[in-house]
Amino acid sequence: MRPTIKDLSKALGLSVSTISKALNGYEDVSPETKELVIKTAKDLGYHPSSIARNLRLKANDKIGIIHPLKSFESEVFVGFFRGLTMAAQKLGYNLVLYTTPFKQADALRNICRSHEVRGMILLGLSLSGMLEETIVILEEEQLPFVVLGHPVKLANTQELNFIASDNRSGVLSAMQHLLAQGHRKIAYIGRAQDRENNYERFLAYQEALNEAGISFRLDLVVDAPYHAYSGREAMKKLLSLEDLPTAVLAFNDHIAVDAAQEVLEKQLRIPQDVAFVGFGDIPYARMSFPPMTTVKVPLREMGEVAVGVLLELTLPPHPNMSKTFPTQLIIRSSS
Amino acid sequence: MRPTIKDLSKALGLSVSTISKALNGYEDVSPETKELVIKTAKDLGYHPSSIARNLRLKANDKIGIIHPLKSFESEVFVGFFRGLTMAAQKLGYNLVLYTTPFKQADALRNICRSHEVRGMILLGLSLSGMLEETIVILEEEQLPFVVLGHPVKLANTQELNFIASDNRSGVLSAMQHLLAQGHRKIAYIGRAQDRENNYERFLAYQEALNEAGISFRLDLVVDAPYHAYSGREAMKKLLSLEDLPTAVLAFNDHIAVDAAQEVLEKQLRIPQDVAFVGFGDIPYARMSFPPMTTVKVPLREMGEVAVGVLLELTLPPHPNMSKTFPTQLIIRSSS
DNA sequence: TGAATGCTCTAAATCGTTTTAGATAGCGCA
DNA sequence: TGCGCTATCTAAAACGATTTAGAGCATTCA
Lengths: 335, 335
Hints:
The structure is a homodimer. Chain A is α/β, with parallel strands linked by helices. Chain A is built from 13 helices and 12 strands. Chain A has helices at 5-12, 16-23, 31-44, 50-57, 75-91, 107-113, 131-141, 167-180, 196-211, 230-239, 253-265, 283-287, 299-313, and strands at 62-68, 94-100, 120-123, 145-148, 162-165, 186-189, 221-222, 247-250, 275-280, 293-296, 323-325, 328-330. In chain A, strands 2-1-3-4-5-11 form a 6-stranded parallel sheet, with helices on both faces. In chain A, strands 7-6-8-9-10-12 form a 6-stranded mixed sheet, with helices on both faces. In chain A, helix 5 (75-91) links the parallel strand 1 (62-68) and strand 2 (94-100). The first copy, chain A, starts with a helix and ends in a 5-residue tail after the last strand. The interface between A and B is large, with 56 and 56 residues. Strand 2 of chain A pairs antiparallel with strand 2 (94-100) of chain B, so a sheet runs across the interface. The structure holds a DNA duplex.
């Protein structure tokens, strides 16, 4: 069995409290004792039990992440994770992954009350419809949390803290890029009916068309559900039109790269026949052929900031700390 | 403040121990009392503190993962994470991410002794040279662990448990595929000097050449260090040779796709001028252009099995449980 | 000399559970 | 009536730390 503070106390003939104080830098321990305790602790290989400490202090060095099972399917989420781990590592915290769906409905309450994490970061819950439910519980339990990845505006809740990208300006810059190249028939592949990122990007697409005096064509908007081949399927629909688009703006890079594949296989050229712009700048946007023009979203930075904001939330007072990150158009050879 | 078991005890006029027993299905509590306690617990929103339980029971529902900061850069690791989260979720465990490098050298000892995880899964530590050091500590602390992703054979340690892919048969099948197409000048891009996966794959490459009666050409082997563009750089070297290779076997898909890009930009055709085979079958092997022929490694399954093996290790006795997973050649249009 | 002060140290409570050992009461039976 | 048995409940210790309140002792000052 590993030595506890009691073993150390016995070994030195000192009280448990003196040991604890010596180890935690209290003033009322003589320098000699302090030194002796530290040395003996090292010799015996003593390390305090973080579980016991947490119980006593109601504190901990962990940050929870609530995320759906499929998080690791998406390069975007992986980008967030990159930032989350970096920030956590830098600040001395560890990440605990709580993968939804939870077994029981109140497993989350359990976690909240057990003081095992300092707060929660919510990732990708909106797709599975878990977001609202989760937020209600977290607010009731008064556990700080941050929503990472998209804007969120809910009725019946306090003001929420979220970390999102500036979808509007991102799409506008992408559209301006395409418009400047003379494109007038620009298709959009992505969900139009959803909320959050989907909605904001689609809205901005329409706004850009409007601004340019181009009338919106419903047949140039194709829905792309969340699965691996939705880009190709959408592109097939677009290529079957009478009046073909000359450019495609996709909701994300994954869809864009997938759609581009379909175009290449049909022996069409990119960007001469169809130009492409994605969204996100995931690593493979650059690895794809041709390299994909895209709107860069600072995924890693957003993850890092999420951790920072969460930790600030743990120290009241905390005004709303939502942050929207600027995006940047990265022009590659697909457009 | 959240209700504790004491609050419940006061509210019901029953002793703390009765509450605890009622909630934990003991036999010496009357059915009526049991029902009442459960109902009241629900009404008051009582949930036991997992921290306190863990302290008392010296148990927990967490599995630790020690991994380098750059894990999320690699699709291979992300594939492992996919399996890890799936298995953990299914079995009711949560994952705790310990991102190396640790602050202090003995932070790991700390974790081991605090009983905060049931065991550790080691991911990608060999690259940073942390593997041996970590293993020594884990063995000293007697915390069960599993190495995921590559074979490992260390001196001075007990027999280790690892989860790896069958590199040899994977490379042999890839080489047979290329040889069957008549390729004789097959290049290899990857690290030849390293241990583990690198070494095994390179060895199998040589073995296949040997078997086919083709003499090994040193100029057809190009080192590819671990960074984003190493595939392109290696390919540049290969394309500057007098006697060009007609096929390329890459250490992994990332390198293969990157190298293929270079070929395409030089206006060469794939697979007519140069055929490609990767290793791993990460998602973008299929998304790349042209879709990449590759050796599929069951990343997700390996992650799942790692969790299973680790949990078995926590219940003695445990013989060596290393597992090597079969691979599968997936032929796409790059070859 | 006596009181006050300062320096170390310790006892004991506490965090929220689980579990062992024992208490109490009711009941049947001789 | 008294004994033993069963069914139900409780007291208290334990897990491993931190922290408050106070004890003991030497020194200093009036």
